[in-house]
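Entry 14: structure prediction run for DNA ligase. Input pasted below.
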Amino acid sequence: MAEDDIKDRVQGLRKQLEHWNHEYYVLDEPSVPDQDYDKALRELQKLEGNYPELQDPASPTQRVGAAPLSAFESVEHPMPMLSLDNAFSDEELGAFLGRVVDRLDVDTTPELVAEPKLDGIAVSLIYREGILVRAATRGDGSFGEDITLNVRTIGSVPLRLQGAQWPPEVEIRGEIFMPRAGFEAFNEQARRLGEKPFVNPRNAAAGSLRQLDSQITARRPLEFCAYASGQHPEEGWPESHWDVLQLFASWGVPISRYAERLGGLADCVDYYRRLGEQRDALSFDIDGIVYKVNDFAAQRELGFVARAPRWSIARKFPAQEAVTKVSGVEFQVGRTGAITPVARLEPVFVGGVTVSNATLHNMDEIGRLNLHHGDTVVVRRAGDVIPQVVSVIEDRRLDSAPVIQAPPECPVCASPVESVAGEATLRCTGGLICAAQLKAAVRHFASRRAMDIDGLGEKIVEQFVDRGLVRDVADLFKLDQTALVSLERMGEKSANKLLASIDASRQTTLSRFIFALGIREVGEATALALANHFGTLEAIGAADLEELLEVSDVGPVVAEHLLAFFKASANQEVLDRLLAAGVSWPKVMVAQNTGGALEGQTWVVSGKLESQSRDEAEEALRALGARTSKSVSGKTSVLLAGPGAGSKLSKAESLGVEVIDESEFLKRVEEASS
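Run finished. Output tokens:
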């Protein structure tokens, strides 16, 4: 290849990779699979290695990290990075807006911009001639630490700005944070390796940015979001904060998709309410909202007080962490026999609710926390995550506080407890003689995504098991009205309704039935993959290890659990009784859920459907090759929205996702099927 051709190829690869980075990190709409990106990156790395004269510090290959530092250097910010005053109520926010109106001597509140207040680490990025040359932490506001090598490893931070309209030098300020999914995955890996997990995503982001070895930072799932400009040229600069954000976006810099322009107090309160309702569903942590006067001329007139601007304020959400005491630890038994320690807490208000229990995961987690009875602890509740104890305040521990010990026997049935090699979880060996496992198994079997037996709640299941009416899930189909009306708070009408629901559940699908059996590690996706691959229950039960491993969603661990389940004579007896009771399903016609007409599309189903349930609609979509998801994002292809779609519909409309109703859905399914 000629020298000019090599140079053109290198430049072309860089441009392509930068474009793909922009799609992935900023637009959240990747257009190529990871293997295509990796292939192009490897080719560029090879060319840059063979032709060192073509290397460029802004190349996408330079995100892997550099040699470790001995310490971070202190650097001075071109302009101080100030903090914000806080408002904790509508009244305090209204008082802030009143001061703005008074100081500007205007009749109405000027236009504002509202953005989520990300719970991360504030940083300053300096670009010269469009190239990232320095990144620094906020520090004390005047001086921060130079973390350029670490920030260069973050995929959402452009090493080179897009376009050509950037000034000779500009400072972009924003937040570096760790998304929830990345945080949970990182902590799960830490637990598996016996390492100490991070307390929360903010601490995880801070710890990752302060690694002296940038190659460690490169392996952490960090992201960046810009929220302001720092030092910049006055000539030709936008006249409002909103226009600056749009300018950043045109340069390929991530900005918040939730930013909005607002009017007065009513708009601000409405935004706070709307974002608060979405808070738990967001993919990242936020601790409030930042309101800013949009017009820069008005900002300059308002000025600053102490170390905070008069033109901006943060409205805080309820804290998602709180301090309380552990009053005791109980051990709960799940349907697979897993024994989970649960902390009983002195009630504390955190994350908008009163919390009195928190998961402790397993005994290894108790050991890592060094938890004693009566300890004062920090409890965290974020998103839909069950509240958990994240740290112990050891300075407040009583000298006589005993260490929490693992139970030697099952707390429900007194069967021996076993510890399986390679697992942190203790398990009860009692099986179905353990009432706790049986109750959990029956609840799972009857759950909406399994056999969908409406009306079979926790209290009724407890009575079934405690009175000996149900000794395994097949006994559900032997129940009669006489047995049901003998239960507490069960009248004849309720009994008939429950019996009708049990009878209706006999007609199901193979994938639902497999999922309902509660086989360890077999979730909905694995159950669907098994049904589509084998087609019959008999074929799944007769499959050997090699045949099971051919299924796309089955690995060695899942395969062993499947073999053990179908090998057990007690399980075979229950299966025979279920089939004899009339449990059945249509023959599976699709060999696999790939290659369908909707392959490559991601669908979300929300709201009430008339022709079928949401689960049935999702099954139809997956059978045609589509991927289904429970949340709307930039990767969503279509939202099927029935009445009551709610926040998912609003989010889809804000992201420009296609939205269709049920009649259009049925039409497309029919077309795709034919």
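Notes: Residues 273 and 279 are 10 Å apart (CA to CA). Will compare against the previous run tomorrow.
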